Amino acid sequence: MRFNDLPLALSILLLAPSPSSAFYLPGVAPTSYKTGDKVPLTVNHLTPSRSARDTQVRSVFSFDYYHHAFHFCPPEGGPKYISESLGSILFGDRIQTSPFELRMGINETCKAVCEEQTFEPRDAKFVNRRIWQNYNMNWLVDGLPAGQLQEDTNTHTTFYSPGFALGSVREDTPRLNNHYDIQIDFHQHSKDQYRVVGILVEPYSLRDSKSLGDGKAECGDSSAPLALSEKENTGVTFTYSVYWVPSATSFATRWDKYLHVYDPKIHWFSLINSAVIVFFLIGMVATILVRTLRKDIARYNRLDQLGLEDFSGTSVEDTVQEDSGWKLVHGDVFRPPKNPMILSVLLGNGAQLFMMTGFTIVFALLGFLSPSNRGSLGTVMILLYTLFGFVSGYISARVYKAFQGDAWKQNFAFTPLALPSVVFATFFLLNLFVWARQSSGAVPFTTMLVIVGIWFIISVPLSVAGSWIGFRTPIAPPPTHVNQIPRQIPPSTGYLRPLPSMLLTGVLPFGAIFVELYFIMNSIWFSKIYYMFGFLFLCYGLMITTSAAVTVLIVYFLLCAENYHWQWRAFCTSGASAIYVFLYAMLYWARMLSFGSWTSGVLYLGYSALLSALFFVLTGTIGFFASWLFVHKIYGSLKID
Ligand SMILES: *[C@@H]1O[C@H](CO)[C@@H](O)[C@H](O)[C@H]1NC(C)=O
After folding, report:
1. Which of 130, 435, 566, 586 is the most exposed place for a label (fewest CB within 10 A)?
2. Nearest atom of ligand 1 to the alpha carbon of 106
3. Domain span at 97
4. What global pTM score does this model have?
5. Ligand 1 center from residue 245 Cα (angstroms)
């Protein structure tokens, strides 16, 4: 089994928040080495990236380090997989052992990794193409990624950027890097106890390197670079040197130089920007709620009394009929919407997503999901999503009950099955493309089985239990009675028509998150480490508030226009920010990515659409429940006999 982190993740869930003020908690216990101890170097998949020459990413596929075409030397007895967490595997990590021999504190120059390798033209073509696409190597030493020293031109500070280039392109010729200068920073913890605190790799392309057998080699000169011929066989010797450099960085802060904030000003600027929008919105909604509504309610209730006392001849309805406004639809506003089953199932799933995202962000904020614990983010997300199956069942059942649905069995079954199967089917389909390209990003079949297993063994029963409780708990009747005959709805005009209202309102929650979205996309497509969870937390809060406020506003206008079909409208207008998220993904594609193959495009489109759809359900749910509260509140304060 390669999943060793589930018990760990479970225990993380049960841990109380630590009072530690550290930005992150080190996820792994420190390993100390004595001088001369072997420090293992493990290799992860090769990932596409950007380079100084070419600022666009040209592929989405990652490749296994031991893909036959690369001819990288395997260790004796073949490479072995290092056990990883479920999240780590899902997010593409394929970590394996390597033949590199690093001995703590012992410098070595020009060692051969193995005997000379022969690249046939077919393999050379493959590797050259990967070099053109700026593929990066991803090595790990003691859990730390091997990086390259980079300078931030804005702040003139240097930092370690994970990954280093497979090759480079000069004068239109791809050069393969076959020599690695490995610099390891180490920190003396106590007498003869050393810890690894940083790794830099400087790769070189050396044509004239020769293996002398027995691990020894003669390294060529960097003025004669190595290019793989696509016409005839090319012999390549892979070599490496190791330099151990003492460092003052302690083990606890070793990640700091990897986690570089590019431009905190942009973050703060956008955050303040969104905060202003949100406060403006809340101000607007508050004005409406407090001033207009109170006036409305007072007037309606006064008319109510007048109607009873003074105009004893005429009915209340007649008097109010003169007026227009949301009171008129009090007999219809709690009429169940069309397709109550679909809506309640979506809302249940939306609540589940909402809880999962919220809790994940809070956990990350508290420092539980440190980058040193590879894949912990993914693992915790899956785990939380599974556990919150209970919430989805409960919410779905409650809403369905309020909608007076009676197909109970379907509701019980659809809630845990409908949306997840759509997601899983899409995921499976997209995975076929990845698999067909021989990319290591394809999720292994066994991992898929494990996910399906977790789903059916834990999540589905939890959801059904939630549904059962939601179904058994009695529900309060709506504040106003539903009339027998539905009222006619005047045709909606202007911005109240469905599409304009969606496009208009959707842009605001999107505005609260779009800068953070840029960094999240960078972390997904450029395999950058994302860790700005403080910003993410604030943005999530702003997004919730904006979605809620703007949807309440639209629902109020809708009810004033005597349209009582607010349920689906609230869900869709709030969810419409997902349309912008999708458009943003397309814009990002145009600006930052330039795919060489259509399969990359299909994959990017597919995942963008899938994530946008889930985002639709999430924000739609927020908008719906905000409107639900609002509608119950305002009709609850009317006096209607
Ligand atoms: C190893 O190499 C580094 C970098 O050249 C140097 O700073 C360090 O002193 C060397 N260590 C030993 C033990 O020679």
Report:
1. 586
2. 13
3. 29-253
4. 0.86
5. 6
